[in-house]
Amino acid sequence: MITIQAKLGFQSKEDEQAVADLMRRWSSCVRFAYNRLLEGKSRNELKRDLQGVFNLNSRYVDDAIMKAKSVLESCKEREENPGKVIFGGRNLFEKLKKRHINGNEYKKLQQEWQERRKGNLYSRGDKSKKGNLNTRIEIDENGAVLRINVGERKYVYARIQAGCKKGKSREELLEAISTCQEAYSVELKLKNGKIYAYFTIEENFPEVLITKENGIIGIDINAYPDHIAWSETDENGNLASYGKIPMPELVNGSSDKREYYRWQYAHEIVRLAEEKKKAIAIERLDIKDKGKRGDFSGRKSRRIRHSFSYRSLIEKIKVLSKRKGIQVIEVNPAYTSVIGMLKYAPQYMISKDVAAAYVIARRGLGLKEQIPEGYMTILKELDADELEELKEHVRKTVNNKQLKKRQLKELDKAIKLIQSLESGTGKASGPLDGTSLGACSESCNLWRVLKVAVVTPLSPEKVLRDISVLKGVLHSGQVGRPVRARVPASWGRGYGSA
């Protein structure tokens, strides 16, 4: 979908007032239809009654019923109580209830509440009517205007004040929409006393020609440090090339500036895939509301949301890929960073982020990661008592409170899993080496234990930066003794400095 936002300019106050009155009646119609739907009324029953009650034509009423129905269905999908929906926004409603807000602050909130509740109008497009019958874009010698049906055979014309952005005039896009004879939807919203229009048309994408049959480029977007790591594989999943794209412009600056650069970086990724004739694999992430702990640790979720709008960048990559006919594959993000760090970073001597992108690319091909035999040797010899010793070592040696808390938490999870494996109630996996299709899907939890068992003894006081120390562990199955940290003797395995 392509959406264009523009402010409307009216020839007179009377015309603007007529449109505002239409928006008020349509918004009331939506709320009335929603309550009747809760009572079990059907669409046909409502359509007959609402035209006379709110003095709206059948198309406006049909769109109001559709909007009310979508709110109801959305509420049911989120498993919320449909009877407690507040049109205008619950957060704003709760603020207005607070007694300590008064004066101009209260008046601003009250105006915003009224505009959200009463200042809406939605008109669906219709291809049989060559666009949109109630709200139609027309082009004259002065530019684009919006013809709004405010009553029976009565129209108001509003100038579309669309400016230029990213080197292409919005008026050119509006002119193309008005002449293509395709259905487009128009939504009007009242904000700060001004009426804005949102024009939406469905985009027709070409056939997907670049698929994963030639290989995949995996993308790993990192909030800190700010960059995109990418890894290219051939059709068999072998590493072909890799690189990083720094994104310093997304750390700060205005929202328009960050939006511009998000498009630029998305174009760069898609150009790379187009040149190499490879599909794109990305992580399928569900970023929760900011401030709430959801996926990841909560902290990473908030950092992604605040730093550079992860979801926005991903969506731009997906849209641009569709326009170029490039296949985009979304994969499960679980343990991509851990597997990349432990398995592929030491093998190819690449960074953890590039290794994570490589894991993402391989998952896009349908490959499952098996735990190498050297690491399986460590897991087989590991028991909960050794992890308890390591916990005590972390308590004594790690000064950073946050790092200590995180490591102890990971160790606790690892101990519980090891105990469940010893009792036979947990997930187990046999000795594994290499990688094949569909194998070892049950061993994901073991990667977490492996990270704790290998990385924490090597670097208990700080984040492990030198991945090369893992190369010997990967092949020998022995955890070396770190230079600057004394660990329990059992972790040395008879080896010297790492």
Automatic annotation (TrEMBL):
GO molecular function: DNA binding
Keyword Magnesium: no
Recorded coiled-coil stretches: none
Keywords: DNA-binding
Domain of life of the organism encoding this protein: Bacteria
Protein's recorded name: Transposase
